[in-house]
Amino acid sequence: MTATPHLPPTPIAKDTFLIHDNEPRADEPVTVTLNSMVIRAAEAVVVDTGVAASEEQYLADVFSLVDPEDIRWVFISHDDIDHTGSLNALMAAAPNATAVINWFIGKRMGDTLDIPIHRQRWLGDGESLDVGDRVLQAVRPPVYDSPTTRGLYDPSTGVYWSSDSFATPVLEPVPTVDELPLEMWLGGINTFDRYVSPWLELVDERRFQATVDRIERLAPTAMVGCHTPVIAGDRVAQAIAATRLSPNAAIQPQPDQSVLDQIQRALGDLAA
Ligand SMILES: [Fe+2]
Ligand SMILES: [Fe+2]
Asked: pTM of this prediction?
């Protein structure tokens, strides 16, 4: 495994920042980002909490933007380990924070969720969260891999947190998708969508497109998620258009046993 240089937080909009992380990589040509977000609203909001392995860097990045005592809300988009990795640690370090989850996140996390019930708020798709100077909206993205998923839209900046949607593998972590080769980016959205949501092959086309319409109607100025650099300006429409194609796109198969055989042989050769 080799470490990739760590990117400092990227400003997305006024008082809104993307926190970067990515998978450690072996020899793969691509990596997957593991990002999160901070909104310095009147009541500061942290959105998703990365993977546990990056806890130290994650907390340092968050606290470079907002003091622990000033964090009022920690929004969790869904219960996967790349979104909840530092949740317990952040809640322990931020005494005034409430975890914005939902009933099913609590159920699915079980004992791994170490947050007392009086520090929880349950927010469902379509519901709102008043953070003092703005009212954030929970909006489920079109593509997701957990039944608990909600995205988060900030009407004051137009920034939409898309959780696992509008995601793509990247060659290297970069601040914005402008730095990705266009075809790789758009094809990457299709591949990512189908890997995390294989049920896309089963969806009714019209009903799926309606879920994309819902995001388009928000008219986001920028979209960001755990697994994508910042998507802003004209790129928003491109990402939405690519997502519309995902149910029927031709994609590369996932690595299978023959790939694992190659890796094991290579490692065996190294060890010999
Ligand atoms: Fe996920
Ligand atoms: Fe994820």
From this structure: 0.96
pLDDT tens digits, residue range 67-109?
999 999 999 999 999 999 999 999 999 999 999 999 999 999 9
Ligand 1 centroid to 195 CA: how many Å? 11
The β-bridge relationship of strands 128-130 and 120-122 is unpaired
Contacting residues for 154 by C-beta, under 8 A, at least 6 apart: 13, 16, 39, 134, 136, 160
Gap from CA of 23 to ligand 1 centroid (Å): 14
SS3 136: strand
Residue 153 Cα to ligand 1 middle (Å): 18
In the numeric block, which tokens belong to residue 34?
A: 């593991």
The pair of three-digit structure tokens given for residue 168, joined into one six-digit string: 């793509």
CA distance 52 to 57: 10
Q: Which ligand number lies closest to the CA of residue 83?
A: 2
**Does pLDDT of 44 surpass 60?**
yes
Residue 220 makes CB contacts below 8 A (sequence gap 6+) with 153, 158, 159, 160, 236
String of b and e for 183-206 (b: at least 16 CB within 10 Å)? eebbbbbbbbbbbbbeebeeeeee
- Answer whether 94's CB lies under 8 Å from 62's CB: no
Query: Which pLDDT tens digit goes with each residue over 183-201?
Result: 999 999 999 999 999 999 9
